[in-house]
Write a structure and sequence with these properties.
It comes from Lacrimispora algidixylanolytica. It catalyses: Ca(2+)(in) + ATP + H2O = Ca(2+)(out) + ADP + phosphate + H(+). One of its GO terms (biological process) is export from cell. It is a multi-pass membrane protein. The protein is an alpha+beta fold. The chain has four domains: 162 residues, Calcium-transporting ATPase, cytoplasmic transduction domain A, CATH 2.70.150; 285 residues, Calcium-transporting ATPase, transmembrane domain (Up-down Bundle); 152 residues, HAD superfamily/HAD-like (Rossmann fold), CATH 3.40.50; 172 residues, 3-Layer(aba) Sandwich (Calcium-transporting ATPase, cytoplasmic domain N), CATH 3.40.1110. It has an eight-stranded mixed sheet, sandwiched between helices. Strand 10 and strand 11 form a beta hairpin. The chain is elongated, with a radius of gyration of 35 Å. The two termini are 63 Å apart. The protein binds adenosine-5'-diphosphate (ADP) and magnesium ion. The site of magnesium ion has 2 residues, from loops. Adenosine-5'-diphosphate (ADP) binds next to helix 13, strand 15, strand 16 and strand 17.
Length: 899
């Protein structure tokens, strides 16, 4: 059977051997999974190793290198001076390939593992129990439960549907939600969009709820059929990676031009053509920062890993870098800044004084809380051991808890009332209604919600004042106020017309609920402020309640204002854009308003992170630079629209993630600093030496050795650098700020000059000066000395790059692999020069004791220059930063160690 829309519910159930009330058993589910497979789309085919190698061989630098190897092979045959050089070049090409491929693969694997944590959850009935589980575990025949905000986890035939509407635009392109009906029976040949008794994988529920039996999973679902076509999608690069690629391309161009130039002057200086062309080719390769891309990928995946450990799941890799640039965070209040653990503090009944919950309840108080309970959907389950579990939303849980604390229960009263209908709560309406049939005759309408939304009948003289006075009183103590209205009718109004039901209500009373702020919220808001990030609170709560909490956790400052949803409607986009800086709290807003807030901040050039959990938050989550959804309370729809999921729903986690993001950005800047200095120095050295007629300071093999061993391997570990917490003591980096901003360009130039100068000086001394001892002067000795200095300075440079502070302030324990790899490389380079029998392979010769001294001394100079530069830089920066901190928050601060 293929067309399940033609089958009746019972027939479908029968076919899948499924029980409507208990679902499948776990054992059966396991069996079916082995038969039908997991409910997932086929993974994109892994690129084979051969393909990977070919991909790298296509790389221009590898081609040039192989050409160079070929050239030196020709020369070896022609001149007969051995095959060592071509063999060494080819081995280095291979080493380079192995390094690139293994590192890239492990980085990709790590990212893949992390993104698979993101698989959505669904509600399933198994063994008679409702369970939340990963959608991948679903099998045909499973009973799934759909509710507002669910993503349909597989193709399924509906069994029950209540006002169920599903957005199928992802599948059919139809933007209007389709109204589902389990009871329909259709005849053959119905297109997808009209199969109203079916739901399809990947679509989402926009209203109502339902139960369905799974008919098709994985590649057998309608979405799976499309996924087959989409499978060969390209890997998407983050904006940063794309910009970096441009940087790398321009450096490659410079390298190639420099190489041609070198070839030209070499020939003019009378060097042999073959020598020069091999050299030029090698230079072109050496100067290309091949590892840049790799280190960026490694940094990003390291960042994602660190974020997961701090409860932030990254769904889109580009969020890592955008988070680091975040300058405004718009956060929900309830559950994110507060604990979402409500409890009732106070009650009020018209005509009486406010009443604390700890006082002895009279009849009227008992009646009020009972009626609130009647107007709630929360349910209470008594366990055998006498403990009680309440299920429902936090507001209603608080009501039920108080009810039971006072020795009352809903049961005793439900005998008198029978539930006939409900108008559900929504963030737009901010109220909900329950309609009950009274055994004694007639109907009781109970509406609970925000006082300002409740359609109350006209108050008696003076009453209105009393009500709003109590409301202000409660809200001023940061209590969330909930009002209850009721009306008795003889005839049941049509449930289709909410405005007919919810009118002329009599006010029963108010309750004030406390939802304590999360203890870490105030600290996190403070951290954000120090980091130049503005926190904005967005809530459906009343302005007074919201501002009381916002003031407590430091969001609402002295000159900042609260804007209500109503006021927001009345101001134009231009005004909002102009005044957006004044508003720190948005109260009584609907999710739809969020998008205006996001856009107004963005108009001002800010990078905005926005939180959300409901279906209606989706547009704002998408519009924000970083959309953040709630792992615990968020709907699947919101999660799938977001860039990052907070697994603990905690505001403080956002700040941790921002700090991680900044660390990644800083490490990438360090990488650029590191690679650019090393590569450009090489170009400068070769060119200057040729122009001066000093010959060739480092041979092709030496260049390659320095690049692969000196820069390549230790450089990889830069992605693991951890910056100190002061990274969060400066303003966010602007969206379009270049990589080389903030003084990076000037230190690159300074270090390039220093590094090239010492190598040239070392080479000159060893080639032309007579030093005591029996070595040299000769070009061979000069080359060995130049090689040592170039290698050593490159490695020492890594330490300079690690921190903006003195290298002595950075402990070695922070990043042991950097230490191990650099020590190893320094030793290897020394070994090659010290042991001529091995060094011979790489054109290296033995050098004298004084040469060693000269090399060591010169190698230290760039680091010393950098240290002096840092000293001066930090002096002025301390002043600047003090001023900055003075502006933001009176706090003494020093320069942090990141770039
Ligand atoms: P927030 O943005 O803080 O999460 P909500 O949208 O949850 O705010 O709630 C907004 C308002 O709706 C509350 O101030 C309260 O008056 C009302 N409200 C919240 N929960 C319920 C509920 N379960 N039943 C009735 N009214 C509610
Ligand atoms: Mg809410």
């Amino acid at each position: 059977m293929e067309n399940w829309y033609e089958a009746s519910v019972s027939k479908t159930l029968e076919h899948f051997n499924a029980n409507e009330n208990t679902g499948l058993s776990e054992i059966e589910a396991v069996n079916r999974q082995t038969k039908y497979g997991r409910n997932e789309f086929d993974k994109q085919e892994k690129t084979s190793l051969i393909k990977d190698i070919l991909h790298h061989l296509k790389d221009i630098s590898t081609i040039i290198l192989l050409l160079a190897a070929l050239l030196s092979l020709c020369m070896a045959i022609k001149d007969g001076h051995g095959f060592i050089e071509p063999v060494v070049i080819v081995s280095i090409v291979i080493l380079n390939l192995v390094l690139a491929i293994t590192q890239e693969r492990s980085a990709e694997k790590a990212l893949e593992a992390l993104t698979s944590l993101n698989s959505p959850d669904c509600l399933v009935l198994r063994d008679g129990v409702q369970k939340e589980m990963s959608t991948e575990e679903l099998v045909p025949g499973d009973m799934i439960l759909l509710q507002l905000g669910s993503i349909v986890p597989a193709d399924a035939r509906l069994i029950i549907s209540t006002n169920l509407q599903v957005d199928e635009s992802a599948l059919t392109g139809e933007s209007e939600p389709s109204e589902k009906n389990a009871d329909l029976l259709l005849q053959g040949g119905v297109p997808l969009g009209d199969q109203l008794n079916m739901v399809f994988s990947g679509c989402h529920v926009t209203s109502g709820h339902g139960v369905a039996v799974v008919t098709g999973t994985g590649m057998h679902s309608e979405m799976g059929k499309i996924a087959g076509y989409l499978n060969n999608s390209q890997k998407i690069k983050t904006p940063l990676q794309r910009r970096l690629e441009k940087v790398a391309k321009s450096i490659s161009m410079i390298a190639i031009i420099a190489a041609l130039f070198l070839l030209l002057i070499g020939l003019l200086q009378g060097e042999s053509f073959w020598t020069m062309i091999t050299l030029a080719a090698t230079l072109a390769v050496a100067a290309v920062p091949e590892t840049l891309n790799l280190i960026v990928t490694l940094s990003l995946s390291q960042g994602v890993k660190n974020m997961v450990n701090k409860n932030a799941l990254i769904r889109k890799i580009s969020a890592v870098e955008t988070l680091g640039n975040t300058s405004v965070i718009c956060s929900d209040k309830t559950g994110t800044l507060t604990q979402n653990r409500m409890s009732i503090e106070k009650l009020w009944i018209p005509g009486e004084d406010p009443f604390g919950v700890n006082e002895e309840f009279g009849e009227r108080e008992k009646e009020l809380i009972t009626r609130f309970a009647l107007a709630s959907n929360a349910t209470v389950q008594m366990e055998e051991d006498g403990t009680m579990t309440i299920m429902g939303n936090p507001t209603e849980k608080a009501i039920m808890r108080l009810l039971h604390d006072k020795g009352l229960s809903k049961k005793s009263i439900t005998e008198q009332y029978r539930l006939v209908g409900e108008i559900p709560f929504s963030s737009e309406r901010k109220m909900m209604t329950i309609v009950l049939e009274d055994v004694a005759g007639g109907y009781l309408i109970l509406t609970k919600g925000a006082l300002d939304r409740l359609p109350l009948n006209a108050f008696d003289e003076g009453m209105e004042k009393a009500v709003s006075h109590v409301h202000e009183l409660f809200a001023g103590e940061a209590l969330r106020v909930l009002a209850l209205g009721f009306r008795h009718v003889d005839e049941l109004p049509s449930m289709d017309k909410p405005e007919e039901i919810e009118r002329d209500l009599h006010l029963c009373g108010l309750i004030g609920l406390i939802d304590p702020a999360r203890p870490e919220a105030a600290v996190a808001v403070e951290r954000a402020k120090m980091a130049g990030i503005r926190t904005v609170m967005i809530t459906g709560d009343h302005a007074v309640t919201a501002s009381a909490i916002a003031r407590n956790i430091g969001i609402l400052g002295e000159n900042e204002k609260v804007l209500t949803g109503q006021q927001l409607k009345d101001i134009s986009d231009e005004e909002l854009c102009r005044d957006i800086h004044h508003y720190s709290v948005y109260a009584r807003v609907s999710p739809e308003d969020k998008i205006r807030i996001v856009e107004a901040w963005q108009e001002n050039g800010e990078v905005v992170s926005m939180t959300g959990d409901g279906v209606n938050d989706t547009p704002a989550l998408k519009a924000a630079d970083v959309g953040i959804s709630m792992g615990r309370t968020g709907t699947e729809v919101a999660k799938s629209a977001s860039d990052m999921v907070l697994t603990d729903d905690n505001f403080a986690t956002i700040i941790d993630a921002v700090s991680e993001g900044r660390n990644v950005y800083s490490n990438i800047r360090k990488t650029i600093y590191f690679l650019l200095v090393c590569n450009i120095s090489e170009i400068v050295i070769m060119l200057v030496a040729q122009l001066k007629g000093w010959g060739i300071p480092v041979t092709p093999i030496m260049l390659l050795l320095v690049n692969v061993l000196g820069d390549g391997i230790p450089g990889l570990y830069l992605s693991r650098e951890r910056s100190d917490p002061r990274l969060m003591d400066r303003e966010p980096i602007r969206r379009n700020e270049g990589f080389l901003s903030g003084g990076l360009l000037s230190v690159i130039i300074q270090q390039t000059i220093a590094c090239s100068a010492v190598v040239l000086v070392g080479y000159y001394i060893a080639t032309f000066w007579v030093l005591p001892g029996n070595m040299g002067p000769s070009q061979a000795v000069g080359q060995s000395v130049a090689f040592l200095i170039l290698g050593w300075t490159s490695i020492l440079h890594l330490y300079t790059v690690r921190s903006r502070q003195s290298i002595f302030k950075r402990t070695l324990r922070d990043n042991p692999p950097v230490v191990y790899s650099t020590v190893a490389m320094i030793a290897i380079f020394s070994f090659l020069v010290a042991v001529p029998s091995v060094g011979k392979i790489f054109n290296l010769t033995a050098i004298g004791g004084y040469h060693w001294l000269v090399a060591a001394g010169l190698s230290l100079i760039p680091t010393i220059v950098a240290e002096i530069g840092k000293l001066i830089d930090n002096q002025t920066n301390i002043r600047e930063y003090r001023e900055y901190k003075h502006r933001v928050i009176r706090h003494k601060i020093r320069r942090d160690d990141s770039f």
